[in-house]
Every structure is written in structure tokens, then in C-alpha cells.
Design a protein that fits this description.
By secondary structure, the protein is mainly beta. It is 6% helix and 38% strand. Among the domains are: 150 residues, no CATH class; 107 residues, no CATH class. The chain is built from four helices and 34 strands. The strands form seven sheets. A twelve-stranded mixed beta sheet has the order 9-10-11-7-5-1-14-16-18-22-21-20. Strands 13-12-8-6-2-15 form a six-stranded mixed beta sheet. The radius of gyration is 24 Å and the shape is flat. The relative contact order is 0.09.
Length: 431
């Protein structure tokens, strides 16, 4: 049994994301991956337990972002390339012409290889660029103001079925599958051609709800379009999984002659909500018990019971009017990753934005912070229980400074809480 995929990056600005890991539905874990680059600068983001060979990066000083610190990898020189390993499940093979970027800084591959051959210490890391952040963050950091536009051709191999990597918004990926069940997870804003899926009922995961898409026939394939930049070609043999449910492609095709704008209701029993796209922020679940009518939410508010809500770029969950009094505890499991240009706000409750509010934040130095605000938006005086900050940095959190500085837990979940009693005593907790 094997999972193997090959990627051929075509000329153009590009950033290919090899970090997909929504196990068990869609993950690159266990794959053997080869990537052939271009004569321009190619960018890759690599994170996960798989083997990736980018020794054919071609000319140009390509940049490979790797999740993890440099010390986590065992380096060696093999046939004129640098090989980085973690145990037996993870390896990365790089050309000497390129740059590798870790959570704690970057290094030129050739310089590291020279040090290994001479049995001397590895060159000092350059902390001006790190791999802290998501693929979207990193793409914007190295290509500010540029929309990637390249095509990546992907081919599946092996006999077990494959999960394919992702490209950035603005890019196109064409995928040729196998006779087993293959998986494609379409990143928002990208163009994906999976019309050559070959055999098996393959799965295409989409980040929008069913009614977000327009459906048309394109020769023997179904074409889905969302917004101005996202489109997908799907084979009629396969299955589509949306944020709100799933259906076979053929069932949509059968409806189109009479229902050019189908809805889940039109699909009746052929539409199922038993499977949805993983990794998305699910609907906010509020207590619907006997206190709900009074807007007195005494039961916990649950956001993302399975994988949590992904909140970035100023997005947030808004609660309805909530009445709180007496002793109060705010608690959350968080996996922080944000720029040091501003604090990371976890919870904010009050009369209006930044006015008479109670805020639980992660400061730019990685410490937990509870901050009340006055009606005018200014900090309350210390006599009125002003800001309280934890003594130590949160567990597993690292902070990088300088341009592009990040606060990150490296993917680890952290439990944080603040309790305020009726006497205004504040207690911060973190695990």
C-alpha cells in the first residue's frame, strides 16, 4: 500500500501549501511527495509527517518554510542535497541553491551543507524571517501586494488513494487522480480542475455552503463557481462535501436541466448533513434551555466542538445580549498564532466595542492579560481593577521579534481562564 503524489509548478508567482492535515478526512500524512520547481522563485510551506523531495527546484533561490525549529530535525548531506529528518515518518530533501526557513529563523541550504561536510557547527540562523504563521500569512509576508497566479499540475500514484496539497488564492491546480479514492480540499479563492479524477468515488471538500456556489455543466464535468476567483471542475463519478452537507456530483447534474439554481431541498434525501468539510469554523451553539428566553446564558457557549473555530483578520463570533453578574469566569481552549503588531483578543464582553468592556487577551509578549475598559474606552484605574497580566509567558508559546514577529503556540492547544469575583478580585489561569 502506498500514497505518492508529484507536483510540477508552472512559471508564475506561486506558493504551494503542503500543510493540509484534517485527519482522518483530508491529510498529507504518510505520503511520498515529489515537487519540481521553476526557474523563478518558488515558495513552499511544509508541515506534517510525510516525505517531500524538492531537490529538483531548478534555478532561482527558492524558499521552503518548514514548521518546527531547526533543532527538531536531523540533517545530512545525501548525493549533493540536504536531507532533514524527524524519525522515520518525516523527511525533506532540498537543493543546495535554496533557503530553508524554520520557526526560529532561516538559513541558506548551501552554507549548512558546507558546515556538515566540514563537521563544523551549523551557520547561525537569521531570525528576520521565520515559518511562524499559516500559509496565507507567509505568502503575504514574502509577496506583499502580489496575488499568486501560477498553475500547479498534480498527479496521483500508488494504490491507496491520495490527498493533494493546496495552492494559494489566485492560483490554479490541475489534479489527475488514481483508481482509488482520492481527496482534494479546495482552498477558498483557488481554481481546481479535478475532472480527471479517474476511478473511485473521490471526495472534493469545499469551504463554502451549497448555496454559495453556481452550478453549470462543462462538457462531461460539473463546474462550481463561488465569487470571482474560486471555481472547481468535478467528475460526475465523485462526491462533493460542503460546509453544510454532502451530495454526489451526478445528483446535482441530474437536477440542472430543470433546476438551474438547485438547493439542498431540491436534492431531498440525496442531500446529507452527516458529513461536512472539516477545519471550518462551525455555527455558534448557544444554550437553548429554559434560561435562553431571558438572555441569561448560564450554560457554556461552545465554539467548534470538534476542531475549534479559525478566527483571523479581525473576524469574531458575536454573542446576543448576555446578562452577567456576581462571580464571572471566562474560559477557552486556544491555539494562538498572530502578529506582534497587536494583541490577540480572545474574549470581549461589554456595552460596545472597547467601551465598558471586559477583555481577555494574549499580549504581544506571550502573557495572558485581563483588561477592563471604561465607558470612554480608556483603561480603568488600578483602584478599579485595571489590567492584570500573568507573570509568565503562556505554556508552549514562543515570541519572535522584529519585522514579521509572531506569537505562536506552535500548534499546541492551551486552556486559559479568568475569574472575577463579586469583590473584583481577578485570577488568571492557564494550562
Amino acid at each position: 500500500m502506498s500514497k505518492s503524489t508529484r507536483y510540477f509548478i508552472q512559471p508564475g508567482s506561486n506558493f504551494t501549501d503542503f500543510s493540509l492535515d484534517y485527519a482522518p478526512e483530508a491529510t498529507l500524512a504518510g505520503h511520498t511527495i515529489t515537487v519540481k520547481g521553476t526557474s523563478n522563485v518558488d515558495y513552499l510551506f511544509v508541515s506534517g509527517a510525510f516525505h517531500l523531495d524538492f531537490s529538483e527546484s531548478l534555478s532561482g533561490q527558492d524558499v521552503v518554510f518548514v514548521r518546527g525549529s531547526r533543532g527538531a530535525f536531523t540533517p545530512s548531506v545525501v548525493d549533493g542535497t540536504l536531507v532533514l529528518r524527524i524519525g522515520i515518518a518525516t523527511s525533506l530533501r532540498l537543493s543546495e541553491d535554496d533557503v530553508v526557513v524554520f520557526d526560529d529563523g532561516k538559513t541558506v541550504v548551501k552554507d549548512w551543507m558546507t558546515a556538515l561536510n566540514a563537521n563544523t557547527p551549523a551557520p547561525a540562523l537569521d531570525a528576520s524571517l521565520t515559518s511562524m504563521g499559516t500559509a496565507n500569512d507567509l505568502s503575504q509576508r514574502v509577496m506583499p501586494g502580489v496575488t499568486p497566479n501560477a498553475l500547479v499540475r498534480a498527479f496521483g500514484g500508488g494504490d491507496e488513494g491520495n490527498t493533494f496539497a493546496q495552492v494559494q488564492s489566485g492560483m490554479t491546480m490541475s489534479v489527475k487522480g488514481t483508481t482509488a479514492v482520492d481527496v482534494v480540499y479546495v482552498k477558498a479563492g483557488t481554481v481546481v480542475d479535478f475532472s480527471e479524477s479517474l476511478g473511485g468515488v473521490d471526495k472534493l471538500y469545499l469551504t463554502g455552503s451549497f448555496t454559495d456556489y453556481r452550478f453549470t455543466l462543462d462538457n462531461a464535468s460539473l463546474k462550481l463557481v463561488r465569487g470571482d476567483t474560486e471555481s472547481v471542475l468535478a467528475s460526475t463519478d465523485d462526491r462533493l462535501i460542503f460546509a453544510d452537507g454532502t451530495v454526489l456530483v451526478q445528483d446535482i447534474v441530474n437536477l440542472l436541466p430543470n433546476q438551474p439554481s438547485p438547493t439542498p431541498d431540491n436534492l431531498a434525501a440525496k442531500w446529507s448533513t452527516n458529513e461536512r468539510t472539516p477545519g471550518l469554523a462551525p455555527p455558534l451553539d448557544l444554550d437553548t434551555g429554559p434560561n435562553a428566553a431571558d438572555n441569561d446564558y448560564r450554560s457554556p457557549v461552545i465554539v467548534g466542538r470538534e476542531r475549534g473555530a479559525s478566527i483571523s483578520g479581525g473576524s469574531y463570533y458575536a454573542l446576543p445580549s448576555v446578562s452577567v453578574s456576581g462571580d464571572i469566569t471566562f474560559a477557552a481552549w486556544v491555539r494562538p498564532e498572530f502578529s506582534t503588531s497587536a494583541e490577540g483578543c480572545l474574549i470581549e464582553v461589554g456595552n460596545a466595542n472597547s467601551a465598558s468592556n471586559l477583555m481577555l487577551r494574549i499580549a504581544i509578549d506571550g502573557r495572558l492579560k485581563f483588561q477592563p475598559k471604561s465607558a470612554a474606552g480608556a483603561n480603568l484605574e488600578a483602584s478599579e481593577a485595571g489590567s492584570v497580566t500573568s507573570t509568565n509567558v503562556l505554556p508552549n508559546v514562543t515570541v519572535t521579534s522584529g519585522a514579521g514577529g509572531q506569537v505562536s503556540s506552535g500548534g499546541a492547544w492551551i486552556h486559559v481562564a479568568v475569574t472575577v469575583d463579586s469583590a473584583r478580585n481577578v485570577k488568571l489561569q492557564r494550562v
